[in-house]
Design goal:
The chain has 249 residues and is α/β, with parallel strands linked by helices. The chain has 9 helices and 12 strands. It has 2 domains: 70 residues, Ribosomal protein L30/S12 (60s Ribosomal Protein L30, Chain: A), CATH 3.30.1330; 161 residues, Alpha/beta knot, CATH 3.40.1280. The longest helix is centred in the C-terminal third of the chain and has 16 residues.
Length: 249
Amino acid sequence: MKTEHTDFIIGRHPAVMALKSDQEINKVFIQSGLKADAIAQIIKLAKEKRLVISNVPKTKLDQMTDHQNHQGVVLAVAAYHYASIDDLFANAEKKREDPFFLILDELEDPHNLGSIIRTADAAGVHGIIIPRRRAVGLTSVVAKTSTGAIEHVPVARVTNLVQTAKELQSRGVWLFGADMRGKDYRTWDAHGAVALVIGNEGKGISSLLKKTCDEMLTIPMIGHVQSLNASVAASLLIYQGFNSRHPLA
């Protein structure tokens, strides 16, 4: 497992989720003057872990979080952990399920990544793969947007997505890419070991990675807008995968 730079977890619900997890936390910052009942659970969990709790002015938290909506709670955390590809396979094996992975090709918006992680957790995705360069990583904004899901979905960060895609294929995983041209996503049967490839917000999937995919999926649109936000498109496709893997009785 790899660890990145020190970061912050911002907001009450993400803080609770982090405190309940194995995330390594260095310090807890609480805004002075907050009502005790609003943060009672956070203080209780922090004390159980014997963490240092600092009461600081709101201006201090504003400065630490670049004026994001911190709700009076900030955790200083050690590095977010990046999983390996083997960790992702192990996560599926632990649940006795065929692997269901996401590959995110140069996603740049941390809010999109956080939302996708949240959906991935809800739909039982076993892991996410992102590139090391030209893409957002696991930041405090991603963590807050994921509302705690970042603690439950392993994320692998790799040097070359195309090489990783070919490795997945060699291990029995079929790759399905999201594209304007492809088969209707509503016909997608995601049984077996699969990976869903989502492209960059503006450019889509890079040409080499697209050529590596086994099949392309498209979301039909009949309105005036012929594109969807990356996290919205990903959510539709993820839940089609969920629907086919967990059909109604």
